[in-house]
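>> received
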Amino acid sequence: MPPARAGVQLQRQEPCGKCQSMRGCAGARRTKGKTGAVHMEKLLILGAGGYGRTVAEAAAGQFETAFLDDASPLAAAPCERYAEFAGEYAFAYPAFGDNALRAQWLQRLKAAGFRLPVLRHAQSFVSPSAVLAPGSVVLAMACVGAASVVEEGAIVNMGAILDHDCTLGACAHLAPGAVVKAGNRVPPQEKIDSGCVLARAAMPGKGNGLHV
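>> returned
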């Protein structure tokens, strides 16, 4: 298991108790009550834009979801009323594409008592030896390779590849189709855009091993 950065709490992948899948199937957040009814944990998603709706689809079957948003008709309330929902919703996630803004909201949600989910689309691949931190997201058709770490708030977007022995820093973002080859450490809040390839063991950051 790769070493964790200071101050980062990581969560090792555990197979689903129902299917032994590492992908986070529908059984991952579901429990049965005494009556046999299926109960899902509740997830509050801040932001009902395109990314927020994508997150909700990734969470389907794992969480019962609701939105907060300042303008969307899909939302139950504006984002600033998040604390009112802390008793009803155990989990919350700020679905904001701006990395710095997402980092700020993660801290606010944790301070309010929410837990951060690990969200993995059922059609993604995550190696059994990879580590996903709370608040990380791996979307459809994305791949996280062996012994790699996805830190808190980081996003592996649709079709992106994080090769083996890599670290995707806190609130960093691999855009759709981006590729990070083996042995890289993407800095916190960095974005690797679509069509970019970070060369193997390159010094992370723009202009260092980043090829289009």
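>> The radius of gyration is 17 Å.
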